[in-house]
Structures are given as structure tokens and as C-alpha cells.
Amino acid sequence: MAKINANYMKLPGSYLFVEIKKRVAQFREKHPNADIISLGIGDVTQPLAPAVVKAMHQAADEMAKAATFRGYGPEQGYDFLLKAVVKGDYLARGIKISEDEVFISDGAKCDVGNIQEIFAKGCAVAVPDPVYPVYLDTNVMAGRTGELKKNGYFAGIIYLKGTAENNFCPGPPSEKADLIYLCSPNNPTGAAFSKKQLKKWVDYARKNESVIIYDSAYEAYITEPDIPHSIYEIPGAQEAAIEIRSLSKTAGFTGVRCGYTVVPQKLIGRADGDKIKLNTLWNRRQSTKFNGVSYITQKAAEAVYSEEGRAQIKQVIDYYMENARVICSGFAKLDLKMYGGVNAPYIWLKTPKGMSSWEMFDHLLAKAHVVGTPGAGFGPAGKDYFRLTAFGDAERTKEAIERIGKSF
Amino acid sequence: MAKINANYMKLPGSYLFVEIKKRVAQFREKHPNADIISLGIGDVTQPLAPAVVKAMHQAADEMAKAATFRGYGPEQGYDFLLKAVVKGDYLARGIKISEDEVFISDGAKCDVGNIQEIFAKGCAVAVPDPVYPVYLDTNVMAGRTGELKKNGYFAGIIYLKGTAENNFCPGPPSEKADLIYLCSPNNPTGAAFSKKQLKKWVDYARKNESVIIYDSAYEAYITEPDIPHSIYEIPGAQEAAIEIRSLSKTAGFTGVRCGYTVVPQKLIGRADGDKIKLNTLWNRRQSTKFNGVSYITQKAAEAVYSEEGRAQIKQVIDYYMENARVICSGFAKLDLKMYGGVNAPYIWLKTPKGMSSWEMFDHLLAKAHVVGTPGAGFGPAGKDYFRLTAFGDAERTKEAIERIGKSF
């Protein structure tokens, strides 16, 4: 008799964006003519950079001829892309990462979800609250938690509470955590760790032999000079952290699928008394369960790192960050409390008038025909907050903010 | 202290194709001018079909304009591709599968590796021997086995031995297995289950409430009429089996990455006494840990199912199967015992003169400059066998067979 992984039954009903999609669909059914503006799901809207599209066309043509056709590529990614990543994202910032420490993947979500597999079931896990739900959910599925409690927290998880008081940048806990998920710039709060704050985490991890899983999918949106783009800007971090990056938000790859994970050779885990390289384990995981990223996608990703590509994606990022500025200045007039929007394309709004975040969702959908994301979807600490994203069309974003203003 | 998943330590040193790559590299270093022909790794060599390349170009152009740009797609795949799969692979054979039973992925290897996650750790697993190593390795990683024994078998696994006596089509075991991996047409033996043989498996699974994970990545190579292309051709199989398919070998997508998994709504697993739909669990798994396949890839995959695309890929499959015929008739003259090559692009050779399969590998590399795959890499039952593939260039394949003939 095939028994299922009963840990799945601990997960609450619906994944956040599925629930949002459902509510929007129900609203559309009743109001088929409503002109809905979505500032909800963190999805980009601007087209791919011309240099990226050009690279795709060239790669597709290579695949059309026997002489240049490519079959299976290396599970870890093609050399040309590994080199571009190392040079563009690390050497350029004075960080020494070698190509065999980088693993190209079909996106940060997969890596963030799969990385926990190489660790023991008994590891104590720390996750920020609020945060991108994948860190927590994948550990629930793997059996690293108890049941979901009535207060919305899972038993057995160390929650790192982001609050207005700590500027949504929680520091290390008093307990010992083995695996620590950090997201900076943060989704959903838009907060980003300073070097000083991040150093505390690296020191904590080195002292306790913990591993930080550092999700920096939004690093391209950092505008302030003291905010590190990579955790490896902190001395000693190669002995403390895995870094996960994505081209989804950097270069509009949400529908193209490419990211990467850095597992430094210096990073170790324990098996009984033995020290084991996590790089070896992740390489084994990827070689066994993954078959590499589309050649066409990898050539497209390489183009992101070209001079032409970099200039083109910067324009798009500037466009989105101008939206963030518009949102922030619009809300400032409304006297709404908000965070983020400076080093991230996310604006984290305190719900007004004691509204819960789902009440705010329903209010904005009904009264302003604007879709945002309820903070509660990112953890209990988000229950009085609401996430808006700067990924929309500029004109539509302006209109959305006007409509929201009128709705209150 | 971060402890690692100690199950990884049970795995033997190297993944098969990594070891082969290493030996070939060592040989090349010593003999830089050797003209090596690879009939080893099961990788295609012919270019993508023109219809597929055309669809890629069109999709890339859509991604270049804001009006037609696509961001995140559904984790389960786009409707257009789900419809094409249902119509082309199932309705066309009289099988009723609905779109919400199909999950598009970036390839069969990922799905085959990940599917075990939705089952309990305590499930008894049956795997063919010899077989594609991913079924076994991913269950070792998940902790469903004991240690590797000296005889090459893992403790706690039910092995389904494929031998010349059972034509490499083993029947159900006397023990109760909960999860059963079947691969038909088989990699590496080239054997394929008949309807009658497969019915025995479906009956066994229904009786024991087991789940068959049916890998039919090579169904496009079936030439004999009695061989089922889908396990769902067997009545009742929708209550007994998950089916995993790939475009890698069907349409040369090894470097493009697209496959799919069918989890019928009727298929259930047990959680204590409760019956749980496996479709719901897999949907949850994919929604949480996966972010869909590249839009460009999905449009390319859709083109495989067009009339034009089908005709073009058929030509390529015929080309490879002519290679299979050449290999078989060449070996027949040498009086070598062999299997497969009729419903699969694999020829499974009995090693001559009492050679072990790795001895045969080294012999062919040194004496014929031909790379094949040692049967031992697919399990202990493969230790006296050797796999050759029909995916090479026609002229090179002919030459390889001539060289092999001379080497003995």
C-alpha cells in the first residue's frame, strides 16, 4: 500500500498566489468589465532586452543545424555562462568565486526549494517572518516541523520576526539554528541588510556551524551604497553561506527560467564527526535529479552580462524603480505608513484603520480594482501589512495609486 | 551545527556518465589524435525539427514586445501545450486523460527524481535491475534504503531482475512493493513490455494498492504493434500508475528540456486510513518547488505535436532506428548475443569472452576508439552486458560497428 508523505497534510490549504488568483477570478466573474490593475504577484511586465532576444535567435539557429546542435549540457551549466556569472557578479565586486562553485538552474524557486534536501532532517531551521513562503513550505514538506499551530506558526521552526521596530531586518536568535534562510533585499518587505547587520549573521553562523541560505534575487534593485549585493562581501561568508540568485527580476526572466546557486568549496556540513563539503553534495543532487538548463536560455542569460545587455536591463530596472518612487510618494500624501521601495521593487504598506491584510485585499479589489498581496500570505507577522510591487506599467501604476487614494 | 543528509554518503562514488567522461578524458589526453566515436551516452545528435525552431523564433519575438511578453506561466504548463499533449499522446490512442492530470516539466529526469517526494519514507520500493540509475539513487538519497552491500545491491530495495531468460521484462515480485519503477521501452536493455506483461503489473498494483511510476521516455521508438505506448492502454491503469514522458528522445529536446508527468485523478495514496489524491500532492509539490517551463520551450514543444512537426520528427526517429538496424545486423555477423534495437534506440550486448562490462568499455575505447556504456553502470545484473545507442550519425555508426568487429 503506497503511503503518502504525510508532512504535506500539515500545509494549509492553498498556496498564496493560487488563493489570490481564485479571488480575482471570482471577482472577474461578477464584474466582467472591471479594469483590474495588478500590483500583486511579483512578476515583471517589460519585454526582454534586445541583446537577450538576439542571443535566443542565434542559439535557436544553432540548434537547427547538426554541426552546431547541442544535446545534453552539463548539469551545472555551460562554461560560457559560469564564466560570465563569476566575472560579472563576483570578480567585478572583488569577490573570488570559482566556476565550480556556481550551479546554473532553471530559477531561484527550484534551488531555494531543493537546497534543504542535502541537509539532515533533524536540522533546526530559522526563517524570517514575514517572508517568501517557499523557505518554510519546503521544510514542512521535508518533515522538519511539527504541526501548524493556531497562531499560524509551525512547531519546531525558529521564526525571525521582521517588525517596524527592527526595520524588518531581524538579527540572530538566542537559540542555535542550523539552517537559516535570509532574503535581502527582502520579499515582501523591501528591507535590505546593511553590511554591519549581515556581518552579525555571518559571525553567528560561523560560531554555530550553521549554514545561511542567502536569497539575493533582488540585488539588482539595490540603490544605497552600504547595502551588500552579495553575502560574500562579508569576510568569512564563504564558510557560512550558500547564495541563490535569479535572472527573473534582474533581466525579466520570470517566463524564461534561469538562476544560479553558489556553494563555496569552503562550506562544510557535518556527518557524525566528519566534515563534508556541501559543494560535493549539491553537485551530486543536481547531477542526479536535474538535467541542466536549456541551451537557448543559457545563451540568453549570457547576453545579460554583455555590455549591451547590462545597459539595456539597467534601463528596465530604472523604469521599475521609478514606479516604486511614484508609489511611495503617492502614499506619503495619503499619510500611509510604508517601508521598502528603495533597495527593492516592493512596497510594504501598513494597513490603515485596523484592517487585516486580506480585508485590505478585498477592499482594494472591490473599491479600486487593484490587486495587491496580503501580508498574511508571507507569515503571521505580515497580517497588518500589504505588499505592492513596482513591476507594473508606469501609467497603470500611477492610476492604481490614484484609485487607492480615492478608495480610502 | 548543520548536519548533512547522511543518506548521500551511501551512494557509490561517481555517477555513471561522470565516470565515463573521466575515462574518455584520460584517454584523450594520452591519445590526442584518436578519432573517438561515441555510442555511449543516450544523447541525440540530429538537429531540432524546422517546425520546432520556427516556433522558438516566434516565441522569442513575442518576448521582445511588451504587448506579447510572458512572465510567470502556470507551474503546471500552458493550456496550449497541455491540450496538445492530451490530444496527441492520449486521445489519439483512445485514452481519456484530462488537462489537469498532466504536468509539464523541464524533463523526465527531474520528474522521475522528484516524484518519490510525495510518498512516505517507509514505502517499499521496487526497481528493475538493470535500469536507469536515477530511480534507485533518488530513493537512496531520500533514505528509503539501507547501506550498499558488497554484492552491489542496496539493503531494503526490491530488485526486479531483467535477464535473458525473462527477455529483460521482469514480472511482479512475490513481496509487496509500494512504489514500482518501470521503464518501457527500457533503458538500457531496449526491451519493452507487451500488453499482457504490463497487465500483470497493473493487476498487481491494484491488488496491493501500489503505485507504478511508468517511464515511457522512449515510446516514440516502438515499432511492434503489441507494445503499448502508454500504460493507460491497460484497463484500470489510471488507478495504478503515474506516467512520465519526455520530448528529449521523441523530438531531440535533450538540450532544450521539456517533458511531462501524468498523475490521474483516480490515483490515490494512503495517509493513515485516509485516501489522498496523488494528483493534489504532485500539484502542491510542483506549485511550491517549481516555477514552470520556459515559454519559448513550451511553444517549441507544442510544435512537436503539429502535423508538420510530427512528420519531421518521424524522419529523425526513422534515421536513428536505421542505425539500430545497422548495429544489430553488424553484430549478428559477429555472432554476438544482443537484445533490444527493435522498440528502442538501445542495443544491449552480451559481453563476449567473459569480459566484464567495464573491461569491454576499456577494450572498445582502446582498440576501436568507440565509447559505449558499461552495463554495470545500470545495476549488478548488467555486469556482463554493454549498451550501445542508435543516436549517432549514420556513417559514424557504420564505422563504429566495423571497428568493433575488427577489435575482436
Keywords:
Aspartate Aminotransferase, domain 1; 12 helices; 15% strand; 7-stranded mixed sheet
Give the oligomeric state of the chains in this entry, treating copies of one chain as homo and distinct chains as hetero: homodimer
Beta-strand residue fraction of chain A: 5-15%
- What separation lies between the terminal Cα atoms of chain A? 56 Å
Which CATH architecture of the largest domain in chain A would you pick? 3-Layer(aba) Sandwich
Q: Which topology of the largest domain in chain A does CATH recognise?
A: Aspartate Aminotransferase, domain 2
> Helical residue percent of chain A?
25-40%
The dominant shape of chain A is: globular
Helix run count of chain A: 12
> How many E-type strands of chain A?
15
The whole-number mean of residue pLDDT values of chain A reads 96
Count of individual domains of chain A:
2
Present the secondary structure layout.
The structure is a homodimer of 408-residue chains.
Chain A: H1 16-30, E1 37-38, H2 50-63, H3 79-90, E2 102-105, H4 108-114, E3 125-129, H5 134-141, E4 157-161, E5 179-183, H6 195-208, E6 211-215, E7 241-246, H7 248-251, E8 259-262, E9 268-271, E10 274-277, H8 278-289, H9 295-304, H10 307-334, E11 338-340, E12 346-350, H11 357-368, E13 370-371, E14 373-374, E15 385-389, H12 394-407
Helix pairs in contact in A: 2-9, 3-9, 4-5, 10-12, 11-12
Give a brief outline of the structure.
Two copies of one chain form a homodimer. Chain A has 408 residues and is an alpha/beta fold. Chain A contains twelve helices and 15 strands.
